[in-house]
Amino acid sequence: MANPLKTAAEIEATLIINGAKSIQKDCFGGKVIALRFLVDTAIGEIPIALPVNVEAVQKILSAQKKRNSSVKATAEQAERTEWKCLKDWVDAQMALIQIGMASMDQIFLPYVINKGGKTLYDTVREHGYLLERGNND
Asked: Greater confidence, 78 or 135?
């Protein structure tokens, strides 16, 4: 059975090997809820946050359990699944970087954190997916 803390550490190692710096874990209630790190870019270091959404995964597992009683829909299973999915995603993104198809800042652009602590994705979504010139939210 996968251990979320071990999986988070594996993600950290992958990020370090691929150039991430200053990696930290955000914790709440004794659980890791996000990884934060810095990435070097042409304009300097940018902060990145990779959150997990265990509640969303648990909803999906619960829906699957209705069709298949063997599915485990516990919070613990959702946490393991979420971290494993994030690890697989990070591994796939690092492969794209390693073959020259993308850069770290390109891959993690939606997860860039602004001065207010929001991700670029959340900021753009709040503005109706429109970018406004001169708005540094």
From this structure: 78
One-letter-per-residue 3-state SS of 25-40: EEEECCEEEEEEEEEE
Output DSSP code: residue 101.
S
Report d(CA 9, CA 29) in Å as an integer: 18
Q: Using H for helix, E for strand and C for coil, what is the string for the chain?
A: CCCHHHHHHHHHHHHHHCCCEEEEEEEECCEEEEEEEEEEECCEEEEEEEECCHHHHHHHHHHHHHHCCCCCCCHHHHHHHHHHHHHHHHHHHHHHHHCCCCCHHHHCHHHEECCCCCEHHHHHHHCCCCCCCCCCC
- And the tokens for 21? 């710096």
Report pLDDT for 133: 62
At residue 18, the 3 state secondary structure works out as coil
Per-residue pLDDT of 108-129, as tens digits, reads 999 999 999 999 999 899 888 8
Give backbone dihedrals phi and psi of 52, rounded to 5 degrees, phi first. -115, 155
Half-sphere exposure of 98 (CA within 13 A, CB side): 10
